[in-house]
Amino acid sequence: METKTKTDIVFILPNLLPGGAERVFSFIAQNIDKTQFNATLLIIGFSKDASYDVEGINLVFLEKSRVLNGTIPLFKFLLKHKPDIVLSAVGHLNTIVAYMSLFFPKTKFIAREVTVLSVDVDFFKTNSFDPWSLIIKKRFHFFDKIICQSQDMQDDIIKNYTIKPEKIVVINNPITDHFQLKPETPSEGVVQFITVGRLSKEKGYERLLKILSKVEFPFHYTIIGNGNQKEAVLSLADEYNLTDKITHIHFTKEVSKYLAKSDFFLQGSYYEGFPNCLIESCSVGTPVIAFDVPGGTKEIIEDGVNGYLVANEADFLEALNHSKSWNPEAVRTSVYSKFNRTKIIQQYETLFNDLINA
C-alpha cells in the first residue's frame, strides 16, 4: 500500500470577487509548500466573476449564485475527495461548513474570520428577531481551529463566543504582491488622497467626506471600490461640494499604481478585520491616516512612522494639515518586517502541520 506523503487541503470561498479574503486565500493556496501540501481552491460562485488569477493548483467552481445553493455540491465534493484539512472563510460559509464538519470526523476543519464579530453585529443590529442567530453563534465550537487576523478579533471571539484561547491562532494577512517602491518626491500643488475599499456603511466614507469638506488646501481624492452605499457616498460628496475633487473607480487591477501616485491613504472605518489596503499602501511607501478602531488597523499603523492613528474627526483633520516629510522606504519597511509573505506562509504551514500531527 502506497504511503501518503502530502496533506490534501481544500480552501473554500463564496466567490473570487474583489476582496481581502479572496485575495489572501488564493495567495496562500498557491504559495504553500507544494512538496508538503496538495491545495485545492473551491469557489461556490461563478468562474466568470473571478477577479484573481489562480495558477499551479486545482481550482474548482461550483457555479452557484449563493452559498446555500452550493451546500449539497460542496458536501458531495468533500465526500468524494476526503481532504485532510478544510479551510473556509466568511461568516455565512463558515456556518454551513461548521455543521457539515460533523459528517467528516477524520478531516480537520479551520475557520478564518474576517472582522471583529460582536462589533459588526452591533453595527448592523436590527430589532427584528433572527432565528438563525444562535446557530450562527455556535458555529465556532465545531471547528478544530479558528484563524483570526488580529488580536482584537481573537479577544472578541474568546469573550463573546466562549471559545478557549488554545483553539484560536492569530495570523495576520500577508503582503501578497511584489510592490514597487515609489520615488521620494515631495508633493507639489494639489495633494493626492486615496481610499481603496468597499463602499459600505462601516467603512466610514461619510465622515471622511465631512472632514475633507473642511480642508482648505488644494487636494484631489480618489475612491476605488464599489458597494451598496455608492450612490449615498457620491450624493454626499455633491452636498459637500466635493464632486469636482473626487474620482471614483469601480475596480482596477492597477491599485498599486494609484497608491503610488497618492500622498496619503485615508481610512474612515468604524472597525476592521485586518485591512489589506493599508499594508498595500505602506508597501509602495504611501503613509496612512486612520481612526484608531477595533480590529487590525492598530497592528499595521505605527503613529508617526507609516502614518497617523487618530481618535476623532478633529484629530484626523489636524493630521491632514501636518507638514511632516515621509520617507517611502521607512514606510515600506514598517510593514515588510511584520507581514512579509515568507513569514505569513510559514505560519499557515506550521498550523497545518500541527493539526495533522496532533
Describe the structure.
- With 358 residues, the chain is an alpha/beta fold.
- It folds into 2 domains: 7-174 and 340-357, Rossmann fold (3-Layer(aba) Sandwich); 191-338, 3-Layer(aba) Sandwich (Rossmann fold).
- It has helices at 20-31, 71-81, 91-100, 117-123, 133-137, 151-160, 205-212, 230-239, 255-260, 276-284, 297-300, 313-320, 328-339, 341-357; strands at 7-13, 37-43, 58-61, 85-89, 108-112, 145-148, 168-170, 191-196, 219-224, 246-249, 264-267, 288-291, 307-310.
- It has a 7-stranded parallel beta sheet with strand order 3-2-1-4-5-6-7. A 6-stranded parallel beta sheet has the order 10-9-8-11-12-13, sandwiched between helices.
- β11 (264-267), α10 and β12 form a beta-alpha-beta unit.
- α10 packs across α13.
- The radius of gyration is 21 Å and the shape is globular.
- The two termini are 23 Å apart.
- The model has no long low-confidence stretch (mean pLDDT 92).
Shape: globular
How many DSSP-defined strands? 13
Total helical elements: 14
CATH architecture of the largest domain: 3-Layer(aba) Sandwich
Instruction: Look at the helices and sheets and give the structural class.
Output: alpha/beta
Write out the strand line-up for the largest beta sheet, numbering strands in chain order: 3-2-1-4-5-6-7
Mean of residue pLDDT? Answer: 92
Percent helix, as a range, is: 25-40%
Number of domains: 2
The span between the termini is 23 Å
Radius of gyration: 21 Å
Instruction: Give the DSSP E fraction (strand runs of 2 or more residues).
Output: 15-25%
Biggest sheet details:
7 strands, parallel
Could you name the ranges where pLDDT drops below 50 across 5 or more consecutive residues? none
SSE pattern: EHEEHEHEHHEHEEHEHEHEHEHEHHH
CATH level 1 name of the largest domain: Alpha Beta
- Classified in CATH, the superfamily of the largest domain is Glycogen Phosphorylase B
CATH names the topology of the largest domain as Rossmann fold
